[in-house]
Amino acid sequence: MKAREGELIADPVSAKKLFAGEAKFVWGAQSVDGLPPQKLPEIAFAGRSNVGKSSLINALTGRKALARVSQTPGRTREINFFDLGSRLMLVDLPGYGYAKASKELAAEWQTMIFAYLRGRASLKRVVLLIDARRGVMAVDEAVMELLDKSAVSYAIALTKSDSLKPAELAEVHDAVEAKAKTHTAAYPALFATSAYRGAGLEHLQCHLAALALP
Prior knowledge:
The chain is an alpha/beta fold. It has helices at residues 12-20, 53-61, 107-119, 138-150, 166-180, 201-209; strands at 23-29, 42-47, 79-84, 88-92, 123-131, 154-159, 186-192.
């Protein structure tokens, strides 16, 4: 696997071993006051409601139900923490932007998540999930600006990439990549993934495993 310019990746074998090892739910926080102690490097997954955050976490770890997949968008209201072999913490953030015709972040989400982003020294990276079928929406752009403001490094992962034909996916990939270059905290690597087909998971695993404890 060849690293892209500016990208730090772990060895594929060690990355696969980390994500295939022990993984368990350890904490659910309904407010910033209820967050767990900071003991491990944290990778947070953020995205619109129903973009596939829980599905991606399950696919990365080879589990079917590590993270609960809700059939009702906007149902998950907690920040959920998953310990990966006592070397890395995966954090499933509540989805944002679920409201009919809403283009603005819910005040509740913005307050809670902004406080987490700004006050979490153990947070090493955010994986921002973008639905490949829709590209960057206004609410996603608002979150990117929030992450820029928080000075939190984030990498973008396109989800449900198997829903598009190769030419269509390439077009979306280029458009999202160009958008990311206009944001100061966006990481240069862009990942096209499919939790259903398994596409792009190894590359993302290698990227995230590089941030884990030895």
